[in-house]
Amino acid sequence: MQIMDSVPSMLTVSAIRVTGRPEAPHQIHAPWGYGDNFNLSTLQSTAPLLYSLSNRICESTSNSLTDLRDITINYRSNRMFLLDPHIDPALDGSKVFILGLKSNVVFTLTPDLDQ
Questions:
Q1: Is residue 32 a contact partner of residue 44, using CB atoms and an 8 Å limit?
Q2: How many CA atoms lie within 13 A of 106 on its CB side?
Q3: What is the DSSP letter of 16?
Q4: pLDDT tens digits along 38-76
Q5: Phi-psi category of 56—alpha, beta or left, where left has phi over 0 and alpha has psi -120 to 50?
Q6: In the chain, at which residue ranges do the beta strands (DSSP E only) sit?
Q7: What gap in Å lies between CA 90 and CA 54, rounded to an integer?
Q8: Does residue 51 or residue 94 have the better pLDDT?
Q9: How many CA atoms lie within 13 A of 58 on its CB side?
Q10: Measured between alpha carbons, how far is 16 from 30 in angstroms, rounded to an integer?
Q11: Which residues contact 43 (CB under 8 A, 6 or more apart)?
């Protein structure tokens, strides 16, 4: 008996994640890449609205973001929003920008007390 045979047919996927960051052995990576291999021109050609939005955020004088190294999309089809506490890779830099769309979520961010 296959495992999927025991899963109810009404089960639907409520979350999709797209990232260039290597996270799993058989993962399909976002075409724009990640880190030192992040490619803005590929982002522009494959996701022009994301490219435009990222440019507006990076060029804003109200933040001090450095070069873009990653764009990760976490899409949820229901109201659940979960971002587990975690530490991003050090090479990603010390600044992280998270934009929630159509969500009334509240973030609690804690500074790195070792610095």
A1: no
A2: 1
A3: E
A4: 999 999 999 999 999 888 888 886 767 778 888 888 887
A5: alpha
A6: 15-18, 73-76
A7: 21
A8: 51
A9: 13
A10: 12
A11: 32, 50, 51, 54, 71
Determine the average pLDDT of the residues in 90-109: 73
Pull the structure tokens for residue 89: 């890779």
Terminal Cα-to-Cα distance of the chain (whole angstroms):
53
Instruction: Find tokens 């990640």 and name the residue.
Output: 34
Do 52 and 87 form a contact (C-beta atoms < 8 A)? Answer: no
Q: How far apart are CA 48 and CA 107, in angstroms?
A: 27
Q: Residue 99: which pLDDT band, with cuts at 50, 70 and 90? A: confident
Residues in the chain, total: 115
* DSSP annotation of 27: P
| Side chain identity at residue 10, one-letter code | M
